[in-house]
Amino acid sequence: MFNNFVDLMEFVKKENIKMVDFKVITLPGRWNHLTIPVERLNEKTFSEGIGFDGSSYGYSTIEDSDMCFIPDMTTAFVDPYCKVPTISMIANIYTIGKNAGRFSGDPRYIAEKAEALIKKLGIADEFVIGPEFEFYVFDNISFETEHHHQEVTINSKQAPWSTNEKGDNYGYKVPFQRGYHIGLPYDSNNDLRSEMVMELQEMGVPVKYHHHEVGAAGQLEIEVELGGMTKMADATMMAKYVIKNEAINHGKTATFMPKPLYGEAGSGMHVHMLLKKNGENLFYDAKGYSGMSETALYFIGGILKHSKALLGFTNPSTNSYKRLVPGFEAPVSICFATGNRSSVIRIPGYVKDSSKRRFEFRPSDATANPYMAYAALLMAGIDGIVNKIDPTKEGFGPYDVNVFDLPEEERKKIGALPKSLEEALDELKKDYDFLIRDGVFDEHFINNWISYKYNKELVKVAPVPSPVEFGLYYDL
Questions:
Q1: Which of these is catalytic: 30, 341, 411, 437?
Q2: What is the rounded CA–CA span in Å between residue 180 and residue 416?
């Protein structure tokens, strides 16, 4: 929003801004924040930064936790969810002391390094992506995990199970798994989505469209326009911020959990992608398979070859793998195709504009830290281009058929994605050399990420019994 301190301060004075807020990404991918009165803002803030405890963000140990963040004023936006007039900025993380400088494990810095690498290698000028945000909006949720009691209760007024609800019940319930593009009055969250979109556009995030998704109980989608990778990672964090807060402002609650409802459609974050050089789309070739160039196919080859390891970053929650199961348009087959929603890589058949000819990576979901997930995808693609990984020669397709209709012997030739977070992390342990090229990721950071996921998440989920287990084993 601003390129210099003078313009920033003129805006602050003109708009009567009272507070300045700094948003800093944690290792798992949440925004933490710190706020100062506008009188405390000066030019040193953008050179010396503000100190914080890096161990609380997941980046360091307690005995060596001092870090600082320096805000990026180009990311500034007026925060619509603060009652006191507030301007917010995304900040970068720095180390302090004798080795002061950009923190190599700052997810935003990792994304910037990946973007710089494609330029350094002469491959492209820009990695352009477009994420699709799928999420659920519920009217209420409660959950509890105790030694003697585990419970989740979800309320959605538009869900088919709420037909007998008393009070404000007008009878228009979305049929089970029939919510895709459903119209009013069934689509009771239409105006909420429109307000989310207006806020996003006000914050500089252009939106392509919004609509109801398949899930009957309030599954929605907002898709943004294509943009540069780091900018779109920023936009991903802004989108999650707006969607969650706008839902609360309307007395509802939004979640990006990949599979919050048993038997319902899961929520993914498909990532469309292409490379540009000198303004030209490097992924387009009219003579190539489905309009894809050799460069695009090598990029696809790299992603598919490393797809199992990639899921350690693109699908980093235990809940992610409850979505990645056959039967819900979820991609589980390590292959590519045109228009095939069960494949890891799908080339959209509806994109006719050569400047936007692209493919999408379908497994990812919004529990990912977007900077790390997008950077990992780019690094896999770079590896494919550098090593000329031909996806057809590697046996990845194309499979322009429903892979589940293939004869069993043919199906066995197609690899499957990991079935759990633990399996994905094990794959990442074995296959990360492509990520540490030119120091984009580093080995210490990857090991810290894997350790964090094991010690903070897997060990918490694994010992908790579920109601399904009681049904299966209680009487044995």
A1: 341
A2: 27
CA atoms within 13 A on the CB side of 382: 28
Q: How far apart are CA 372 and CA 240, in angstroms?
A: 16
Per-residue model confidence as pLDDT tens digits over 83-122: 999 999 999 999 987 778 999 999 999 999 999 999 999 9
Q: Which two tokens stand for residue 54?
A: 């890096």
Q: Exactly one of 193, 362, 365, 383 is catalytic; which is it?
A: 362
Catalytic residue among 106, 112, 115, 213: 213
* Domain contains 115: no
Same-domain status, 220 and 174: yes
Active site residue 199: no
- Whether 341 is catalytic is yes
Rounded to 5 degrees, φ, ψ at 9 are -70, -35
* Judgement on whether residues 168 and 283 belong to the same structural domain of the protein: yes
- Distance from C-alpha of 345 to C-alpha of 351, rounded to nearest angstrom: 15
The two tokens of residue 425 are 């992390």
Task: With beta carbons less than 8 A apart as the criterion, state whether 266 and 258 touch.
Answer: yes
What CATH number does the domain containing 331 carry? 3.30.590.10
pTM above 0.70, yes or no: yes
Is 443 considered catalytic here? no
**pLDDT score recorded for residue 327:** 64
Nearest to 91 by CA among 155, 17, 32: 32
Q: pLDDT by residue (tens digit) across 267-290?
A: 999 999 999 999 999 999 999 999
Cα 312 to Cα 325: distance, rounded to the nearest angstrom: 17
Distance CA(373)–CA(355), nearest Å, equals 24
Residue 88 tokens, joined: 């917010």
Q: Report the distance separating Cα 314 and Cα 33, nearest Å.
A: 24
Model confidence pLDDT, tens digit, residues 369-422: 999 999 999 999 999 999 999 999 999 989 887 777 778 788 778 999 999 999
In angstroms, the CA 268 to CA 326 distance is: 14
Catalytic hit among 7, 10, 43, 53 = 53
Strands 19-25 and 359-361: unpaired
Which residues span the domain enclosing 67? 5-103
126 is catalytic: no
**Residue 360 among the catalytic residues:** yes
- Which of 221, 234, 383, 427 is the catalytic position? 221
DSSP 327: T
Count CA atoms closer than 13 A to 310's CA, side-chain side.
28
246 catalytic per annotation = no
Judge whether 442 counts as a catalytic residue: no
- Let me know whether 91 and 204 are in one domain: no
Whether 53 sits among the annotated catalytic residues: the reply is yes
Rounded average pLDDT over 134-155:
94
- Annotated catalytic residue 410: no
